[in-house]
Design goal:
- 45% of the residues lie in helices and 21% in strands.
- It is α+β, with helices and mostly antiparallel strands.
- The chain has one domain: Nucleotidyltransferase, domain 5 (2-Layer Sandwich).
- It is globular and about 40 Å long.
Length: 121
């Protein structure tokens, strides 16, 4: 990634987070990060600055399923895992932070799987 592309990514990420914080006051944030081979999801409390829950394709329980981590099937699995973890810990409502990624493909699959398993955003 060239410097100009990195700057564009950072600008999109800052714009997205600014709008989330402006509109989603006092809600937890479901942050998504994806790479070519893995996808990660975290539920973050911005007020206290702590990560409450996380799920990724690097977790032991995901590795036992023998699914490649860089596709839509893996993203759906991680979305359902993070929703189940949130439900177990009492988290019901979050704000979806897609970072600098467009709402398409793996990011969309993760979000819809999380919604389908009871997470509200």
């Amino acid at each position: 990634m060239t410097l100009k592309n990195k700057q564009k990514d950072d600008r999109r990420k800052k714009r997205n987070r600014y709008n989330l914080k402006k509109n989603g006051i006092a809600r937890l944030r479901l942050s998504v990060h994806r790479s070519n081979q893995n996808i990660y999801a975290q539920i973050i409390d911005d007020i206290n600055g702590k990560t409450l829950l996380s799920a990724s394709t690097m977790d032991k329980e995901f590795k036992t399923k023998k699914i490649f981590g860089g596709n839509v099937v893996a993203a759906q699995e991680i979305g359902s895992m993070i929703a189940k973890l949130a439900k177990d810990s009492g988290v019901k409502e979050v704000v979806f932070d897609r970072g600098s990624y467009i709402y398409h493909g793996r990011v969309k699959a993760l979000a819809e799987a999380a919604r389908g398993n009871g997470l509200v955003f």
